[in-house]
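cron nightly-structures :: item 1 of 1
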Amino acid sequence: MCTLEKRGNIYILTLTGDDDHRLNPTLLDSITAAINRIRSEATSPSALITTAHGKFFSNGYDLAWAQSDPQRHIIMSSKLRSLVRDLISLPMPTIAAVTGHASAGGFILAQAHDYVLMRKDRGFMYMSELDIKLVVPDWFVKLLQNRIGSPAALRDLVLRAERVTAEAAVEKGIIYSAHNSAVKTVEAAVSLAEALVRRNWDGEVYGRNRKVLFGDVLLALDFDETVEDVAHANLGSSRL
């Protein structure tokens, strides 16, 4: 689940509950509902900060929930893609204050924000798919290509399953900044949000410009070949 706090024109969305913050439909629906509330009530200028309680920012898809039925993978993928689409179109700057590990889909959720700040005393970013024998969806890669300028850094994330600490992530251009603790990370995110709000940008223009910047990602979000292939294979098997 998540909570939503409003401080002036800054919204702070915090993932709560299960320490892993696995991306199952319950959590994804909760985040989406918070984003919809922000969209409906925010006025320009505003900003969003997403953070989390506990050891993890998010440990990715809830694979234990999904393992009993391939259709559940499709549901999770669809809901995460919809959430990322909502973040890309949100009419305000967005900041992820990563106060714990961010793995696989959790890393993607963080990278769907305009700025990623991370604590450096604990936690890492990690694309775990190679280690757990999963294929990375094309839309994951499109998003990472948009956010990470270094091909070598992208290679090491996807093809070496490198666990990247905050300081290394800054050096590689994966995140915006690193901070000494969870509290300092959130404080820095609030300071950045305040600075962005002071620019007094028109939120609708900001959101439309982000949609242009992420145009290839928005196209890729229409499809997830890694779950569609599983669905088709299971449909074919059921007809034999």
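cron nightly-structures :: done
Residues 233-240 have pLDDT under 50 and may be disordered.
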